[in-house]
């Protein structure tokens, strides 16, 4: 006859193994591609970053990179950020003033002195409505 302690440990071990097996089955189930009506693979993640900020300064530097100094919305006035963009993007800022929304790619495409530059996808002026 089996001792009660041994029987208890067998039941607990079996329950743990069953729980791990179920957890593993659910973990692998999340990597399956989501079906769509076209049958093509799609990206389900936004590849852009948006920043609402007041541009403070900007200049084109060597190798056709643009460095922009921004004061992001909701930060103290002495705080600013620098953003390195690939290419000369001054034409996208032409005629725009005040607070802007910049949309740029999340992934850096090239490097300049070990700093990644991002592709600018859009500059939008924030209008004030009263």
Return the structural class.
Answer: alpha+beta
- So, CATH architecture of the largest domain? Beta Barrel
The helicity comes to: 10-25%
Q: Bin the strand percentage.
A: 35-45%
Characterize the largest beta sheet: strand count, sense, and whether it forms a barrel: 5 strands, antiparallel
Mean model confidence by pLDDT: 83
The radius of gyration is 27 Å
What is the number of beta strands? 7
Number of helices: 2
Would you give an account of this structure?
By secondary structure, the chain is an alpha+beta fold. The chain folds into two domains: about 1-30; about 50-125, OB fold (Dihydrolipoamide Acetyltransferase, E2P) (Beta Barrel). Helices cover about 25% and strands about 35% of the residues. Strands 3-2-1-4-7 form a five-stranded antiparallel sheet. The protein has a two-stranded antiparallel sheet with strand order 5-6. A hairpin with an 8-residue loop joins strand 2 (about 65-70) and strand 3 (about 80-85). The protein is elongated and about 85 Å long.
Write the layout of secondary structure elements.
Elements: H1 4-29, E1 48-61, E2 65-72, E3 81-86, H2 90-93, E4 100-105, E5 110-112, E6 115-117, E7 120-125
Antiparallel strand pairs: 1-2, 1-4, 2-3, 4-7, 5-6
Quickly describe the structure.
The chain has 130 residues and is α+β, with helices and mostly antiparallel strands. It contains two helices and seven strands.
What descriptors fit this protein?
OB fold (Dihydrolipoamide Acetyltransferase, E2P), five-stranded antiparallel beta sheet, 7 strands, alpha+beta, 130 residues, two-stranded antiparallel ribbon
């Amino acid at each position: 006859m089996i001792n009660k302690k041994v029987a208890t440990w067998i039941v607990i071990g079996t329950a743990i193994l069953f729980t791990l097996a179920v957890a593993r089955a659910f973990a692998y189930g999340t990597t399956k591609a989501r079906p769509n009506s076209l049958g093509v693979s799609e990206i389900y993640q936004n590849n852009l970053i948006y920043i609402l900020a007041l541009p403070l300064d900007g200049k084109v530097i060597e190798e056709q990179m643009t460095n922009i100094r921004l004061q992001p919305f909701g930060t103290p006035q002495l705080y600013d950020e620098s953003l390195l963009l690939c290419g000369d993007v001054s034409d996208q800022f032409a005629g725009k003033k005040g607070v802007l929304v910049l949309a740029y790619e999340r992934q850096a495409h090239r490097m300049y002195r070990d700093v990644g530059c991002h592709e600018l996808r859009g500059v939008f002026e924030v209008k004030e409505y009263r």
